[in-house]
Amino acid sequence: MTSAPDYGRAFGRWRAQAPAWGAYTQHAFVEGLRTGALPHANFLHYLRQDYIFLIHFSRAWALAAAKSETLAELRAASGTVHALAHVEMPLHVELCARAGIDAAELEATEEAPANLAYTRYVLEAGYSGDFLDLMAALAPCVLGYGEIGARLAGSGGAYAPWCDTYGGAEYQGLCRDVGTLIDSALLHRLGPDWVASPRMARLGARFATATRLEVGFWDMGLAGA
Amino acid sequence: MTSAPDYGRAFGRWRAQAPAWGAYTQHAFVEGLRTGALPHANFLHYLRQDYIFLIHFSRAWALAAAKSETLAELRAASGTVHALAHVEMPLHVELCARAGIDAAELEATEEAPANLAYTRYVLEAGYSGDFLDLMAALAPCVLGYGEIGARLAGSGGAYAPWCDTYGGAEYQGLCRDVGTLIDSALLHRLGPDWVASPRMARLGARFATATRLEVGFWDMGLAGA
Amino acid sequence: MTSAPDYGRAFGRWRAQAPAWGAYTQHAFVEGLRTGALPHANFLHYLRQDYIFLIHFSRAWALAAAKSETLAELRAASGTVHALAHVEMPLHVELCARAGIDAAELEATEEAPANLAYTRYVLEAGYSGDFLDLMAALAPCVLGYGEIGARLAGSGGAYAPWCDTYGGAEYQGLCRDVGTLIDSALLHRLGPDWVASPRMARLGARFATATRLEVGFWDMGLAGA
Amino acid sequence: MTSAPDYGRAFGRWRAQAPAWGAYTQHAFVEGLRTGALPHANFLHYLRQDYIFLIHFSRAWALAAAKSETLAELRAASGTVHALAHVEMPLHVELCARAGIDAAELEATEEAPANLAYTRYVLEAGYSGDFLDLMAALAPCVLGYGEIGARLAGSGGAYAPWCDTYGGAEYQGLCRDVGTLIDSALLHRLGPDWVASPRMARLGARFATATRLEVGFWDMGLAGA
């Protein structure tokens, strides 16, 4: 497994304990994005599902804002929702439009089981648990895309825009900010010795499960069309 | 598609609008239970996953109790949790033990993605929505097993005990009770003309999605070992 | 009772069915703001509690974003959280600072029972129910302040800035937007005849209970110092 | 302050850090129950509100079952809901009937603000947080009544049945069981050194806030009629 980008202490530990991390970040779908060999139909299928994903992902960050315990957490989480709803999602709609998928087709997309599995796992973790459970379940997505992007940036080919977006300075900065948010939330709730807290093992298990579901998301992208 | 057992008005309507209902209730796994041709290893795999399923299913019924709006709903839902936690789960542990799976192995089972997908979908429906959302998401499991049981009862073979449990008078009575609970909850919240409420279309979509995830559960049983 | 400002159809109906509406919007605390006779110590006490209130109010709007069912709802709710966390709360801190309450004192404020009662009622309504329950519980605050502001605007005196903020064009526009959001959410969930839905009676009861708790909030402002 | 009954380690610590514990457990309403001097009208007012309280209290325990992380927690919490819904609430209805309050009157009771404040605080703590938050918010009620009952048992007078119920062996055993449940849940989530976890301070603050709201409940009982 390649070395971890520096997105904070918790990420480094959780990543090291997630058996499926390599299967996720070096998935054949990801390799197809890197080399450009991924069939366009699969990419479009992925984009359509990703639109639905972004809706539930925004809801999950909104839930994080609702479960925040400090003003800093509230601002970070609500800033993320705002950016998703007002910037990322319109961008995604535009990206899909350029790829020939109009808004009506996007709205009519039936959510795939692998999509349901990951988004509902994240939301349920948040509702059943607290801010930390939500962060551990969200992290494989946010930070995994950062790690993938960092590796794929500059690889050129048909999917260069995708690779350069996630590998770019803006997204990498967001990953470092989310890593800091997570470490601060752990410190706030579990104290200075949070690394040794038994809670960390259970949060690591959440991260590992969410990582398995991310593998399923790529599998779905590769299978579908 | 075969005719629906009489588990109430909502069930009849939701069932008729769920495209995957036949794929779920007449799945190859189900046919394997009926004929006895299902390999034992697959049945054991299913039993292990079903144990984890029952835990989250109990949590979902507990959430229904928390979201109840009448004393009758509170009693019905809490009675179900109590029966699951104090009767069904010990029975399941015993059933597994007879099949050679001890408690430690059960506890150590890793939850399969198809299991995560369905259970978290149900719980998230309940947390994000209300009692009705929860019922629409739970119904394919509770009432679908009833319909399957009613069809498979008496088919004999290796899985006769399973078939006769779900086809038996006790489980069939429970299905009728749950059907009544659902119809009453709809009447209480949406009024006497609940059948025509736009809410019904959205609840029907929940039921249909949950049905698709039940298909995935059987697929998992058939694939795994 | 004076006539209702036009913040939409649902507001007009809920307001007419809330017995405590007059007691809330024409409370002695409100009259003290209008005439300027409210002792400054009571206003400061109110400001300190209102700071804590705003935190939970932001969390409630974040929960609304998490429970939204359309992109428009997601954007409206997340826009409100963003404005609260990044604009309103800093303004409130500044207002308190000018009144001689520094940030440390604000943070150290013990939440009064009347504050706990209203904020937790709103959040619990949202968690236990859906977007509509949350809107019905939030509306007395958002729209009641609008109605009070519209009446008090231009009354001059020591509390003129407060009166003119809530009576001003910006806040009045926000009230009309929230009214539209509520009416649209009702239409989306209950259909074109939502006014006649039994759900409306239950949402009206939520609105009426929340109104009673707003009376308690003013009582607390008047009693405390 | 009198010495604490032995309901576990967490209770002992939280109790010692709740400034309002004495005001709650030795409230004038409680003294009125002990001496028999409490006017009957106030007791009836309390009984009516307590009926509504029990509904939301049952919902809170159901939420605890939904948020449980072990089978033992699921069983303990669901067993409590079951007992509340099927035993305690019918008993309460009967007690009210003997006191001249029929079921229709009970159902028509308007929930007092102090009742709303405590019950919604508990439920919101549970929804926003985890099983531990819920336990810390519930404990002042469950265990405070135990401590009061232990002190009042055998005091005779008009309210002897009430005093002897909460002071009796059955309720005292339940308090010890809940104390054990809480200590086990802390151990499970925070590890063997849970007493030193920063989480304990925040849970202690929840307990202290809930205790203040219990004082408000007795105030309401004393004021109302």
Molecular structure report:
The structure is a homotetramer of 225-residue chains. The first copy, chain A, is built from 11 helices and no strands. With 225 residues, the first copy, chain A, is mostly helical. Chain A has a single domain, classed as Heme Oxygenase, Chain A (Up-down Bundle). In chain A, α4 packs antiparallel against α11, α7 runs antiparallel to α11 and α8 crosses α9. The relative contact order of chain A is 0.20. The mean pLDDT of chain A is 94. At the A-C interface, α4 and α5 of A face α4 and α5 of C.
Chart the SSEs and their pairings.
The structure is a homotetramer of 225-residue chains.
Chain A: H1 9-16, H2 21-25, H3 28-35, H4 40-66, H5 71-98, H6 103-108, H7 113-128, H8 131-152, H9 160-167, H10 169-190, H11 198-223
Helix pairs in contact in A: 4-5, 4-7, 4-8, 4-11, 7-8, 7-11, 8-9, 8-10, 8-11
